Amino acid sequence: MAVTSETGRWEALFASRTRSDVGEGITFVLSFLGKPDLISFAGGLPDPRTFPRERAASLLEEFAASGESAAFQYTPTQGLAGTLDAVAGRLETLQGCRPADDELLITSGGIEALELVGKTFLDRGDTVVVEGPTYLGAIMAARGFEADVVAVPMDDEGLQVDELERMLVGGLRPKFLYTIPDHQNPAGVSLSAERREVLVELARRYGFLVLEDVAYRELSFNDDPPASLWSLAPDTVVQSGTTSKSLFPGVRLGWAAAPGEICAKLVSAKQNTDQCSGGLGQRMLEEYIRRGWIEEQLPISRALYKRKCELLLAGLERTMPAGVSWTRAEGGFFSWLTIPGADATALAEIAAASGVGIVPGALFYADGRGRENVRLSFSMVDESLIDEGVERLGSLLA
Ligand SMILES: Cc1ncc(COP(=O)(O)O)c(C=O)c1O
């Protein structure tokens, strides 16, 4: 027998933090994905062609045959010692800075790090500074702890640190600032080297934490990105990383590198979220790093995303009417369009009806801005469909 439920029955019992409607944004984005024949520039998902299927299968077989239990057992909350060591060594190679044993934690994806930092730092009414626009998941995490989310504008060099300074001088006192310095989601721009220095200096001067999300750092198309904020100021920055874009999101794995005092709090916050990240994924990650497989895969993934990005940008150049502008990503998954006078939410609905998935810009702001913006993700759309998708969008705008 089917169980029927009456809408609104539990409303009076729901916690007040559930009343923010920002989660509906993600539902809106995900609702496009199942539609057949849709050319989707909507979800920021990795291309399944980058998934290391055979290697994953052979590792699983190896773990089973060798009789090891770590891959199948609960793990310590901070993470398996071997995985922590492999991740620390990789950070040292890639970012020139190695976290000490008490400064690194394995997380269940980048999104968990946001949750753990929120849980550790935020009381109701605290302020979190973000880039405007920013990753929807970060807005949701901050809102989940009933924080006020304040956006600082960006330009082609990322977060406008002079504007941030003006706000700090004016009395803004955030607990932390969340930033995606490399190939930002959704804007597709990176924070310049000069601004990185200024940002960590401001954090030290005004006594706030920087939460650096490096989700797309390893997906640069050309040069390596400038020094990470964490490597510039490991005393002031928590770095949250994920293997979702470089390996595959099915294992839900990431890391957080943080000052020891903060790392200990994050570990205890994790004890009552999921207690530990999955051992199977941790063992796989360790082997992918130690055998050099992750570094073998990355150039292939970067080349694929670069080709897609070039197709998208060339298509926009050909088809967009005068006045429309967009960012030119040099890595990551996204381009950010500005369409003067548009109602991007209405446009997204019309585009979906014409078989094109896009995400309206308002979802990436906590304050209703972004009406004239659209995020286009080139990561998952098939290369052969990019021209057609952009042309359909262009003719809607024309
Ligand atoms: C900037 C950013 N951070 C974090 C995440 C989430 O990563 P994970 O899959 O590791 O939770 C995403 C996913 O889209 C993202 O764009």
Describe this structure in words.
- By secondary structure, the chain is an alpha/beta fold.
- About 40% of the residues lie in helices and about 15% in strands.
- It has 13 helices and 14 strands.
- An 8-stranded mixed beta sheet has the order 2-9-8-7-6-3-4-5, sandwiched between helices. The chain has a 4-stranded antiparallel beta sheet with strand order 10-11-14-13, with helices on one face.
- Helix 4 packs across helix 9.
- The mean pLDDT is about 95.
- The protein binds pyridoxal-5'-phosphate.
- The site of pyridoxal-5'-phosphate has 14 residues, from helix 4.
- Pyridoxal-5'-phosphate binds next to helix 4.
Main features:
four-stranded antiparallel beta sheet; binds pyridoxal-5'-phosphate; alpha/beta; eight-stranded mixed beta sheet; 14 strands; globular
What's the structural blueprint in terms of helices and strands?
Layout: H1 23-33, E1 39-40, H2 53-66, H3 81-95, E2 104-107, H4 110-121, E3 127-132, H5 136-144, E4 148-155, E5 158-159, H6 161-169, E6 176-179, H7 193-206, E7 209-213, H8 229-232, E8 237-242, E9 254-257, H9 260-271, H10 279-290, H11 293-319, E10 325-326, E11 334-338, H12 344-353, E12 356-357, E13 359-360, E14 373-377, H13 383-397
Parallel strand pairs: 1-12, 3-4, 3-6, 6-7, 7-8
Antiparallel strand pairs: 2-9, 4-5, 8-9, 10-11, 11-14, 13-14
Helix pairs in contact: 3-10, 4-5, 4-9, 11-13
The structure holds pyridoxal-5'-phosphate.
Residues 44, 109-111, 135, 137, 180, 185, 213, 215, 242, 244, 249, 254 line the site of pyridoxal-5'-phosphate (PLP).
